[in-house]
Design a protein that fits this description.
Blueprint (H helix, E strand, L loop, with lengths): L7 E5 L11 H9 L4 E8 L5 E2 L21 H5 L31 H9 L5 E6 L8 H12 L13 E5 L2 H10 L5 E5 L17 E4 L1 H6 L3 H7 L3 E4 L5 H9 L4 E4 L2 H7 L3
Parallel strand pairs: 1-2, 1-9, 2-4, 4-5, 5-6, 6-7, 7-8, 8-9
Antiparallel strand pairs: 2-3
Length: about 270
């Protein structure tokens, strides 16, 4: 059974099944693969720069070691963020391609915003990570950067090219205190008693359950919709999960392989 409206495909950390996550190459490929949106995680460097790194430490995804918040942007820029992950080539010809230098350096949020601005129609989902050393300064810096780009107060939430997300309800609330039109997602790893019926706090626009929640409770999407909240689902890579999200009419579907998901949606 196919839902009335297909979900928008959001590239989770870029086309991270094919390129090293959070690299320019991963995001550029996601756009080529037909993604409707891009997802990134942001943290603050020691000198206050917003960088796209998922983990608290750089150990897993770079050639270096250390906690992101203790490293300057200059130091982060000296590390290799691409060679650790060979990725899954789209074609056999890719096995012969030379290394792409855009897969190497640390990606700043500013650079990613520039890429989004150069590709009109692409929506950027920015997840602020918590807990972190600098607490609410992450959201303050995010809003300040969006103001510089003229994106902090879009005319409407529906047309906003940027969406803020977090598993931290405090982080989402802080963003709402700064702007009433930037759309927000409250990410959920599990349903608490207060979230079970599908309600959301007033400062959250979308609900963001993991796909594992929908497998066990597919009615959650409709319950949330009855309270006016559409759904962003992470991270959806299996064909069965894509079919489930489509059947349930979820609004946004985050995936590591946009090309595969777009194909499954017959787009």
């Amino acid at each position: 059974m196919i839902g009335a409206v297909q979900p928008d495909v959001v590239a989770h950390r870029g086309a991270s099944a094919h390129r090293a996550e959070h690299t320019v190459a991963a995001y550029a490929l996601a756009i080529e693969q037909g993604a409707d949106g891009l997802e990134c995680d942001v943290r603050l460097s020691r000198d206050g720069h917003l960088v796209c790194v998922h983990d608290r430490k750089v150990d897993r995804t770079s050639s270096g070691k250390g906690v992101v918040s203790t490293l300057t942007l200059e130091r982060l820029s000296q590390l290799d963020y691409g060679s650790w992950y060979p990725g899954m080539p789209e074609t056999a010809d890719e096995l012969l391609r030379p290394p792409d230098e855009s897969e190497r350096g640390v990606l700043t949020l500013e650079s990613l915003l520039d890429l989004v601005e150069a590709n009109r129609g692409i929506k950027l989902f920015v997840e602020t990570k918590h807990p972190v050393r600098y607490g609410g300064l992450v959201e303050t810096k995010l809003i300040a950067m969006l103001r510089r780009y003229g994106l902090a107060r879009p005319k409407s939430k529906e047309d906003s090219p940027v969406v803020m997300m977090s598993f931290s309800s405090r982080a989402v609330r802080r963003v709402r205190d700064h702007t009433d039109t930037l759309p927000t997602v409250l990410l959920l790893d599990q349903l608490s008693v207060t979230r079970w019926d599908g309600t959301l706090p007033s400062y959250a626009d979308y609900t963001g359950p993991g796909v594992h929640i929908l497998r066990h409770d597919p009615d959650y999407v409709e319950r949330a919709r009855s309270f006016g909240a559409e759904t962003y689902v992470w991270t959806v890579d299996d064909a069965e999960d894509v079919a489930l999200c489509t059947k349930l009419d979820v609004r946004f579907l985050a995936t590591n392989s946009p090309a595969t998901t777009v194909k499954l949606l017959n787009r």
